[in-house]
Fold these 2 entries.
Entry 1:
Amino acid sequence: MTEGHKHHHEDSLHLKKGWFSKWEDYIGEFVYGGIDGSVTTFAVVAGSAGAGLDSSVVIILGFANLIADGFAMSVGSYLSNKSEQQNYEKHERIEYWEVDHLPEKEREEIREIYAAKGFEGELLEQVVDVITSDKDRWVDVMMKEELNMIKEEKSPLAMGAMTFVSFVLIGIVPLIAYLWDYTSSISDSTHLFKVSIALTSFAFIGIGWLKSYVAQTSRIRSIAETLFLGAAAAVLSYIVGSWLETLLN
């Protein structure tokens, strides 16, 4: 790779980081919420198709699952992110107290941290002096270097909302064919299930592509993994639904 190409590649990475990093966590949450929504709803559709249920029943089961599971996931996401923030704040308060009341001990810990990084002599003392001259900087270094904790800037409420929106928005895709069938009064369950498979496959492909963009992994592999996950859930649900329909009838 030439020097010019290297600079172009680095500039592209930094440009992407500049606009993408702000939304990366939220896009990641959208991806995983969408995956869960589409997989779980398609599993309901497949199970219902295996049992030969009417479109109205599929819609009822699908939407009940969509709203209930989507809400449960969004609450879980909110509580998880809120807990991370509260845990960080708790340890941050402890570090501030220690800096105020045990400054020599905390100063020695800074010295040990940077001595382990290879600093020594006068340079080490200069580093310690600079860091400990500002309380906020001092605490920030202690949080990162001693406790390996980084403050999360993402909003727990926004993360929970993103989970719910993506779960419902992508999760409704497997139900579109059944909604159309119900409103148009056309009944062909085999055809509907095939249409649902096609629509959901496109949703999986889109989510798989977006997941590869967030995780910076192979697009083909990410799409294949997402399709495999959805297909596995659908096959299992279809088999169970078909078996239960035969058993009960």
Entry 2:
Amino acid sequence: MLERKLESLRRCLVRVRSRCPATLPELVQDLDAQDVLVLNLSRAVQLCVDMAAHLLTELELPPPSTMGEAFTRLAEAQVIETDIAQAMRRAVGSRNLAVHNYDAIDWAIVFAIATNHIGDFERFARKVAEQLAE
């Protein structure tokens, strides 16, 4: 199951990279790119949350009460570093804004995630892959 989710995450990140315009003004004008980025970043967050919950179950830790808490618990269990947990919690917050308030999305934040923080997802994925290898 985790292998499939890791592959799905990889595909989402490839889509974000392939469709992200070079500048914020281009993103603001490109409705198709907006849709691709928001959809795939939202999916990426959800996949990471699902993987975090799966790892917590495997480690026999209590389930989180929020999506962001899943990453905090993994950090407390020393599965991921605290900075990865913080980055993933921020990603959850951004996803929640996009999903629940689509008409007021801050495209600067989406652009920043797509251009500067995509590596946070990759770092989390590497930690999941390490857990699979153990």
